[in-house]
């Protein structure tokens, strides 16, 4: 049977241009001689369902949307009988994963990796019984992506995150957390915490991660301690602004697994979407979990 592509498209992505972009991609694939099937998402969970049906006849999945659509596509693919390669066409408001992977923000250029790109293995993550592509986090700014009005995100992009985050600064909650991993135990009151496999979070926070470390079988454990006074507050702001994490207020470690213990339930963000969990959360790396199309090295 002829190999074909599966297009999973979020029509609302890219300020509502997802459908138009899909049409241009289909013209390109048709001209190149590809057979394809197209699925448009209408509600949460659709991309999971579509990707879970992937079989050996699907050569590649072309995912058109933002980080949330990619996350759902990956979640479905990890439960599918066949692990097809993913070609990601980023059309979200932050596109952290695309930035980390050096993908083009021109839809046709990104989509053309089906024909001219190379496939690399990339780590994924598991948050209790759920999967994620690049980040789970709690605390300040973590709720911004799923609480910000979607139309506002489409219009303002990164600036919407900054606006919503600024509102949080007036009432930052401190989260008492104990984190256990093979490297040791970390305990304290934190403003923000994350397990991530990315170079940026929210398009704002840049992490000291190289391209090769996105496939090293580990995640970055990143924790920001609550400052005790104005001097520590200024120290923290400076460190985060400059991306210099050599301070006692910031914990940054490379780990393959971590267990978070909290005295009460708290909201998490999973690839930009809300994720609820109990007072104990286990997060672990799934090494080389999927194959992603990226530009060929020159």
- Principal-axes geometry comes out as elongated
Poorly predicted runs are: 144-170
**β-sheet strand percentage:** 35-45%
Architecture per CATH nomenclature, i.e. the level-2 architecture of the largest domain: Sandwich
CATH topology name of the largest domain: Tumour Suppressor Smad4
- Domain count: 2
**Cα distance spanning the termini:** 34 Å
* Mean pLDDT value: 86
Report the biggest beta sheet as strand number plus sense, adding barrel if it closes: 11 strands, antiparallel
Q: Over the alpha carbons, how many angstroms does the gyration radius reach?
A: 19 Å
Q: State the order of secondary-structure elements, H for helix, E for strand.
A: EHHEHEHEHHHEEEHHHEEEEEHEEEEE
CATH class of the largest domain: Mainly Beta
Count of beta strands: 17
In helices, the fraction of residues equals: 25-40%
What's the tally of helices? 11
Structural class: alpha+beta
Describe this structure as you would to a colleague.
The protein is α+β, with helices and mostly antiparallel strands and 298 residues long. The protein has two domains: 113 residues, 3-Layer(aba) Sandwich (Rossmann fold), CATH 3.40.50.10330; 153 residues, Tumour Suppressor Smad4 (Sandwich), CATH 2.60.200. Helices cover 30% and strands 36% of the residues. It is built from eleven helices and 17 strands. The strands form three sheets. Strands 5, 6, 7, 8, 9, 12, 13, 14, 15, 16 and 17 form an eleven-stranded antiparallel β-sheet that branches. A hairpin with a 3-residue loop joins strand 10 and strand 11. The chain starts with a strand and ends with a strand. About 9% of the residues have low confidence.
